[in-house]
Give the backbone structure.
Amino acid sequence: MNITHNTRRRPHQTLLLSLLLLGSAAIGNAGAQQLSGNAALTSDYVWRGSTQSQGDAAIQAGFRISAESGLYAAVSGSSVEFAPQTHASSELDFIVGWTGKLATDWALDANLLHYRYPATTVDLNWTELNSTLTWKDNYWLSLAWSPEALGTEHSGLYSQLAARVPLNPALRLEAMAGYYTLQQTPGGGYAHAQLSAIWKLAAPLELRLSAHASDNHARALFGEDYAGSRWEVALQGAF
């Protein structure tokens, strides 16, 4: 990617990582807990409109522990393929948060998420605050802010508006539009969109077909090989 990273630890990381550890400890003391997980094999790891695997296949898996209070902690991982000089081959995501109903039709999920890239030659690690407001389980608005967006020293605010449309018990559509406001980047950020069709196969497997598109600012920021229009096919399951 055409993003400049630093080799030193950014000043916000120590505080944010401390909050992540404190949140995990709180969940461990929160009483009854439930464990769940997920796994996926995808033809292309596309995240916020740009590929994280240079168009190659990626393997992904994650686990989540939830308390009755709504507190939860999760860890997930994926294979990645960034610019060769970074030597990045894997991504680990650590999350602590809370989710619950605000009213009959409204729900909120708020969390702290830390992206970590082991064994890289530059400091790609970064942390962000996320929130998702959901209406009737099928419509949602997500906001994510970080003082070190994409592993840089600059802030970024990501916003996404999305909808889920069940067509029948076995098939649903999901449409998403997002904009990433990035400090000190050409154009001030970029826009992208995604349209997915998800088929329920034999439980717990699903097949997802997604079309992605991003604007010229994304191509200028990440490079033609990372942004633009692309397809993604994934076999995914939850347990």
Observations:
- The longest strand covers residues 156-168.
- The chain has one domain: 13-238.
